[in-house]
């Protein structure tokens, strides 16, 4: 890939954009198929996602989830591992947050509870990634398959706990009790008020900033430390890394623990920030969206933030769209997302050759032009 | 007691049938070296298109054809991405699964306006029970009568087809030239290429067969097991089939037993709900539901036997190396 004939700025910016354009073009076709004008729909989506404060709040609230899960996928990706278990790890992370809140919300003030819930989210997510990591490193079972299986194990465990253990007496819905008011993460509109700004009410909360801090930390870890170097070396070539004296088995475990912890922290946003109680299916596919986010963001924290905001816009804009158009629902966003994964991920190499050819052609033309000028 | 066992086994067959078809689909694709986590998505879209077509045309056979057609198309997308463009097989599978969840509901809502469901199918536009000859006559004979008329007779066409598919797949994979090449492609594509056989064409064919089988599995869900499509009705069955494929070590007959085992667990999970067992007390349904996944993880890790997949699985084939 490094012997490519195209300049790096094309590789980093232009190719991903072309891939996304392809995905959007196909999505537009599907919009047409269900009798919705795609250009109008795009307008509604952008206005719904960015046109007013509440919309922006929702967009960034969704983006928070995607930053966490996207970082988790990227972390594993940079070591050449495919962590497809973000879904289960985020579920478990949320469980950790929920259990900590349920146990301590009436005894501890918020500032003492927050470090505990953060630790719990990371610990639960990381431990749930530890078993697949161990099995990959020491028993040679493929991490993709084990993490898929663990997603199902997580969801069964959650159903069991909510139905049999955490459900309130005499209630039908499998949900835990709502946490005390003091336990919830501060909402962004509250935080804005501390500094004298006013912002419309939305579910965006403190965890957005925690997610941004995580981006900085992941960037620093991957590109500014020896460990990060070892991780990227392993991602580039496991055999070379091993030859260079890197203990890749240990590294697999470390990377997956970090990846699981990042996924787990998604639970902060959903459980302690948004719903303030434990309920079923709060992960709602965000773990899988992390894969799309990581692919578009090219596994780089800055790319991931941008891709997360894009997906936040898609989710929030999609919700807005479903108010205006009866033929559209959240599932439509899933289609757009799937097309993005297909074109930016699976078919990412499709357009490399044509783009290369185009650039070589332009290059030749330029030199030919220069040549004729020199002759003249 | 005997009657209960027969009923459980009967239910086992019914829930295993789509698993068998889907797992055999996975077998073709993975034996050729292509990871297929898209089984779930193919089943789901086939279930939708089969039910939708059967609703509109009133013919379950056209429904089956439509299901197969859509599933094969998704297989070709998978192939286009992973064989032609050497894309990541897992990523492509994830994309197809997402696409299936989204498209089935979006199109279903648009076409039928029932929140993503298709209208309930009447009995003449779905696969119904086939009564084998003499089943009624033998029903009163003790033991054999029950065994024959309850367990063996009275299933729908696709159940019998799934059982018939196992020896057929065995024959294709182990006794034909195509099967030999298929297995070789999954183990050592370079050798196949050296022999002058196109790796890409073998893999495409494997994916097309996988599409046909997964399409049948999907059609089973919506036109045989139930009467109509419900959003996300495959509910992880594609992944259970994948687990069964690994559990059966990528071989047709063990895969059949893997599917029957997982189907059996599914069948008793429903029956054990709320039942107090001696010694252990009530077993939570979820504990039985996750057994297939746990067993597969243990097997993959080599704690109970060892499952080693085709050697070249997951790697795009690059000619010059």
TrEMBL record, chain A:
<feature type="transmembrane region" description="Helical">
    <location>
        <begin position="204"/>
        <end position="223"/>
    </location>
</feature>
<keyword id="KW-0812">Transmembrane</keyword>
<dbReference type="GO" id="GO:0005886">
    <property type="term" value="C:plasma membrane"/>
</dbReference>
<feature type="transmembrane region" description="Helical">
    <location>
        <begin position="280"/>
        <end position="297"/>
    </location>
</feature>
<dbReference type="Pfam" id="PF02653">
    <property type="entry name" value="BPD_transp_2"/>
</dbReference>
<feature type="transmembrane region" description="Helical">
    <location>
        <begin position="251"/>
        <end position="268"/>
    </location>
</feature>
<feature type="transmembrane region" description="Helical">
    <location>
        <begin position="12"/>
        <end position="34"/>
    </location>
</feature>
<feature type="transmembrane region" description="Helical">
    <location>
        <begin position="142"/>
        <end position="163"/>
    </location>
</feature>
<feature type="transmembrane region" description="Helical">
    <location>
        <begin position="335"/>
        <end position="352"/>
    </location>
</feature>
<feature type="transmembrane region" description="Helical">
    <location>
        <begin position="118"/>
        <end position="135"/>
    </location>
</feature>
<dbReference type="GO" id="GO:0022857">
    <property type="term" value="F:transmembrane transporter activity"/>
</dbReference>
<keyword id="KW-1133">Transmembrane helix</keyword>
<feature type="transmembrane region" description="Helical">
    <location>
        <begin position="60"/>
        <end position="84"/>
    </location>
</feature>
<keyword id="KW-0472">Membrane</keyword>
<dbReference type="InterPro" id="IPR001851">
    <property type="entry name" value="ABC_transp_permease"/>
</dbReference>
<protein>
    <submittedName>
        <fullName>ABC transporter permease</fullName>
    </submittedName>
</protein>
<feature type="transmembrane region" description="Helical">
    <location>
        <begin position="91"/>
        <end position="112"/>
    </location>
</feature>
<keyword id="KW-1003">Cell membrane</keyword>
Automatic annotation (TrEMBL), chain B:
<keyword id="KW-0472">Membrane</keyword>
<feature type="transmembrane region" description="Helical">
    <location>
        <begin position="60"/>
        <end position="83"/>
    </location>
</feature>
<dbReference type="GO" id="GO:0022857">
    <property type="term" value="F:transmembrane transporter activity"/>
</dbReference>
<feature type="transmembrane region" description="Helical">
    <location>
        <begin position="157"/>
        <end position="174"/>
    </location>
</feature>
<keyword id="KW-0812">Transmembrane</keyword>
<feature type="transmembrane region" description="Helical">
    <location>
        <begin position="6"/>
        <end position="27"/>
    </location>
</feature>
<dbReference type="Pfam" id="PF02653">
    <property type="entry name" value="BPD_transp_2"/>
</dbReference>
<feature type="transmembrane region" description="Helical">
    <location>
        <begin position="229"/>
        <end position="246"/>
    </location>
</feature>
<dbReference type="InterPro" id="IPR001851">
    <property type="entry name" value="ABC_transp_permease"/>
</dbReference>
<keyword id="KW-1003">Cell membrane</keyword>
<feature type="transmembrane region" description="Helical">
    <location>
        <begin position="253"/>
        <end position="270"/>
    </location>
</feature>
<feature type="transmembrane region" description="Helical">
    <location>
        <begin position="290"/>
        <end position="309"/>
    </location>
</feature>
<dbReference type="GO" id="GO:0005886">
    <property type="term" value="C:plasma membrane"/>
</dbReference>
<protein>
    <submittedName>
        <fullName>ABC transporter permease</fullName>
    </submittedName>
</protein>
<feature type="transmembrane region" description="Helical">
    <location>
        <begin position="90"/>
        <end position="112"/>
    </location>
</feature>
<feature type="transmembrane region" description="Helical">
    <location>
        <begin position="206"/>
        <end position="223"/>
    </location>
</feature>
<keyword id="KW-1133">Transmembrane helix</keyword>
């Amino acid at each position: 890939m490094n012997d490519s004939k195209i300049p790096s700025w094309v590789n980093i910016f232009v190719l991903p954009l072309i891939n996304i354009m392809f995905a959007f073009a196909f999505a537009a076709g599907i919009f047409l198929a269900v009798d919705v004008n795609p250009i109008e729909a795009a307008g509604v989506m952008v206005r719904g996602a960015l046109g007013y404060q509440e919309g922006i709040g929702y967009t960034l609230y969704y983006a928070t989830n995607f930053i966490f899960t996207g970082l988790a996928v990227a972390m594993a990706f940079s070591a050449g591992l495919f962590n497809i278990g973000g879904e289960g790890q985020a579920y478990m992370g949320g469980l950790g947050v929920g259990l900590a809140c349920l146990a301590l919300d009436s005894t501890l003030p918020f500032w003492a509870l927050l470090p505990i819930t953060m630790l719990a989210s990371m610990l639960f997510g990381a431990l749930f990634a530890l078993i697949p990591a161990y099995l990959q490193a020491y028993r040679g079972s493929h991490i993709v398959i084990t993490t898929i299986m663990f997603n199902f194990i997580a969801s069964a465990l959650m159903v069991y706990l909510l139905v049999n253990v955490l459900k309130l007496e005499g209630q039908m819905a499998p949900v835990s009790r709502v946490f005390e008011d003091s336990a919830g993460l501060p909402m962004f509109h509250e935080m804005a008020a501390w500094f004298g700004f006013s912002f419309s009410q939305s579910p965006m909360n403190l965890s957005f900033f925690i997610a941004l801090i995580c981006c900085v930390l992941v960037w620093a870890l991957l590109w500014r430390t020896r460990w990060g170097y070892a991780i990227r070396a392993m991602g580039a070539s496991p055999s070379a890394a091993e030859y260079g004296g890197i203990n890749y088995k240990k590294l697999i475990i470390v990377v997956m623990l970090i990846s699981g912890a990042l996924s787990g922290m998604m639970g902060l946003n959903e459980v302690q920030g948004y719903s303030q109680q434990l309920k079923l299916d709060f992960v709602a596919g965000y773990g899988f969206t992390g894969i799309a986010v990581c692919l578009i963001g090219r596994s780089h924290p800055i790319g991931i933030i941008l891709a997360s905001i894009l997906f936040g816009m898609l989710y929030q804009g999609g919700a807005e769209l479903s108010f205006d158009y009866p033929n559209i629902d959240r599932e439509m966003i899933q289609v757009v997302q799937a097309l993005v994964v297909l074109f930016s991920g699976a078919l990412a190499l499709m357009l490399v050759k044509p783009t290369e050819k185009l650039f070589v052609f332009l290059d030749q033309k330029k030199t030919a032009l220069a040549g004729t000028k020199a002759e003249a | 007691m005997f009657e209960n066992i027969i009923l459980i086994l009967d239910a086992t067959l019914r829930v295993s049938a789509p698993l068998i078809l889907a797992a055999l689909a996975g077998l073709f694709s993975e034996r050729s070296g292509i990871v297929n986590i898209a089984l779930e998505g193919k089943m789901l879209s086939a279930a939708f298109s089969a039910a939708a077509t059967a609703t509109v045309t009133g013919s379950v056979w056209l429904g089956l054809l439509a299901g197969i057609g859509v599933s094969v198309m998704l297989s070709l997308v998978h192939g286009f991405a992973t064989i032609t463009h050497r894309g990541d097989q897992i990523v492509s599978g994830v994309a197809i699964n997402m696409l299936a969840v989204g498209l089935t509901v979006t199109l279903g809502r648009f076409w039928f306006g029932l929140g993503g469901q298709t209208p309930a199918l009447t009995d003449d536009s779905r696969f119904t029970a086939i009564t084998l000859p003499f089943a009624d006559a033998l029903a009163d004979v003790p033991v054999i009568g029950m065994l024959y008329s309850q367990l063996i007779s009275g299933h729908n066409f696709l159940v019998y087809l799934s059982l018939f598919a196992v020896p057929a797949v065995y024959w294709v994979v182990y006794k034909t030239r195509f099967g030999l090449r298929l297995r070789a492609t999954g183990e050592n594509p370079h050798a196949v290429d050296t022999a002058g056989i196109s790796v890409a064409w073998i893999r495409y064919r494997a994916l097309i067969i996988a599409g046909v089988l997964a399409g049948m599995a999907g059609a089973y869900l919506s036109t045989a097991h139930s009467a109509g499509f419900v959003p996300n009705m495959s509910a992880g069955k594609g992944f259970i089939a994948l687990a069964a494929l690994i559990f059966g070590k990528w071989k047709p007959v063990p895969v059949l037993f893997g599917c029957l085992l997982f189907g059996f667990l599914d069948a008793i999970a429903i029956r054990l709900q709320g039942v107090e067992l001696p010694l252990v007390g009530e077993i939570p349904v979820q504990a039985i539901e996750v057994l297939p996944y746990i067993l597969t993880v243990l097997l993959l890790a080599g704690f109970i036997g060892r499952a080693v997949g085709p050697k070249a699985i997951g790697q795009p084939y690059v000619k010059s190396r």
